[in-house]
Every structure is written in C-alpha cells, then in structure tokens.
Design goal:
Length: about 280
C-alpha cells in the first residue's frame, strides 16, 4: 500500500500528489500540519529526520525527497503513462528542470511564501507557540540554515535580505519557461513529464498569492501553460482539494497585500537584469 505524509500548502507534497493522481494510484493520506509544527513530532522525525513533508511509504518502505518520490513512483508504476521521456535529450531537459526546481526554485518559494503570507498564519499561534515552532526546526531541514531563515522571515517579512534573490530566481525561472513554452507545449518535449508535474505547484503558489497574472502579464506562454495544467482532471484531486479554505484565504489576502512591495522589488530586479548586473 502507498501512503503519503503531506500538507495542503506544501509545494513538495503537491508535486508527489500530482504524480500519484496522474498515474491513477490509490494512496492513504496522513495530514501533517506544518504550520502547527506537526512535522517535528518525534514519531514523524523517525521517518523524515529533516522534519519536512512529503514522505512516501510503499509497503513500509520509506522514500523521502519529493523529486525522488516522483521518480520512484515513475519507476515502480510506469503503466501506460510513463512521466519520463524515452528520448535521452528530452529526458536530460526534464532532469535539468527538476534540478532547477530543487536547487533554486524551492528555497526561493519558501522565502516568498513565508515572507508574504505564512508569517501571518504562524504569528496567530501566539508568542510562546511561535517560539517553540521556530526552535523545533532541525538543523538540516529544507536547506541547512532554514531554522535561522524561517525566524528572520517571520520577524522581518519582505524586509529580509533574501526577498530580492527569491524574487529574482522566480523571474529567471519564469523567463526560462516562457522561452521553452513558446516552442513546446510542455517543459521537456511534447508530452507531460515529471518536469511539468514538478513545476505546477510553484506556479500555483504564485497564483494562490494572487500574483501570477500581474507577474507574468508579459509572459503569455507561461500563463497559458498554467491554464492548461489547471484544466487537467488531476489538478483538483491533486492540488485544490487539499488546501483548506482558511489557508487559501490567508494566501490570497496576504499575497494581495504583499504584491506592491514584491512588485517594487521585481521592477528593480528587471532593471538590473536589463543592464546585465545580474
Ligand atoms: N527537499 C525536500 C524539501 C521538503 C520541504 O521543503 N517541505 C516543506 C513544505 S514544501 C516543509 O515540510 N517545511 C516544513 C518547515 O518549514 O518546517 C523535498 O523535496 O521533499
């Protein structure tokens, strides 16, 4: 039996749910509320010492790291819909996307999500619980200094020094997507692959923060790719149906309030990119 430890606002967990749903696999769900600190329960840390979701369990065997979980599912359940291109060059393209997501986009998404919205959701717990929540983060978590970063993001929001880089990373990824999607229907060739499955939750995060249309108004291929992904029958079962309305409302409202500051930073980043500073 397949089991998934996940949370409604986790982009990494969403990525694995997309693959499970695309393949039509049945799985048992365990909800770990990462905004209440349930990922730090000793029992959960035994299966995921980084204290993060997702964790996939296959007949008792534990698989962590979302991209690895997606690949594992594709190896073990290729079915009639393998999500890895058979052409080696397209496969290399796919791996470059999933590498970019893991190495750059994911930490940047964590910065944007916390500085724009999650900080407000977490602060509602009250001072004492927030302190426990921040202190419980393991040394090696989302990245090796996530504990310090999370504290700064909660305290400083978009005034934190990482905000600019996180916005720049998103802009560069969106530009790269725009270039590729103006020639291909999917990120790695002519069919849906693990690259698309991996990217959907990140676009959706910016969408949930009420920022995507404005951010990408001059990137029509990115917007139409995302619309196409939203039309897939698995979008609701893998993504929308797992986000509690209160959390969706937090993301929507806090994101809309944060947009003017994000936009100001973004316009600065675009100027620097134009003159070749970055
Ligand atoms: N590299 C890990 C990262 C997982 C990760 O960052 N999960 C986030 C949610 S998307 C999390 O559980 N965060 C808990 C926290 O911030 O304490 C993976 O790809 O599975």
């Amino acid at each position: 039996m397949l089991e998934l430890y996940h949370h409604g606002s986790s982009v990494c967990a969403a990525k694995v749910r997309v693959v499970l749903e695309e393949k039509g696999l049945e799985y048992k769900k365990h909800y770990i509320d990462i905004l209440k600190g349930e990922q730090f329960n000793p029992e959960y840390l035994k299966i995921n010492p980084k204290g993060v979701v997702p964790t996939l369990v296959d007949d008792g065997k534990i698989v962590t790291e979302s991209t690895v979980c997606c690949e594992y599912l594709d190896w073990t359940h290729p079915g009639d819909k393998p999500l890895t291109p058979s052409d080696p060059l397209q496969r290399a393209d796919m791996l470059r996307w999933t590498k970019l997501i893991d190495e750059e986009l994911h930490p940047a998404c964590g910065t944007i999500t916390f500085t724009c919205s999650h900080r407000y959701t977490v602060l509602r717990m009250g001072k004492e619980k927030v302190e426990t929540f921040l202190e419980s983060t393991p040394r090696l978590s989302l990245v090796s200094d996530w504990k310090e970063r999370k504290r700064r993001y909660v305290e400083l929001g978009l005034d934190d020094k990482d905000a600019r880089k996180a916005i720049m990373v998103h802009e560069m990824v969106f530009d790269k997507m725009e270039a590729v999607l103006s020639e291909n229907s999917f990120l790695a060739g002519d069919s849906f692959s693990l690259a698309d499955a991996g990217m959907i939750p990140y676009l959706n995060r910016i969408y949930m923060l009420s920022m995507l249309d404005k951010w990408c108004e001059e990137k029509p291929h990115v917007l139409s790719w995302f619309e196409k992904m939203r039309e897939r029958p698995t979008f609701n079962s893998a993504i929308d149906s797992h986000l509690p309305e209160s959390l969706a409302a937090d993301l929507r409202t806090n994101g809309a309030k944060s947009w003017p500051k994000v936009q100001e930073i973004l316009l600065g980043v675009r100027e620097e990119m134009k003159v070749g500073v970055v």
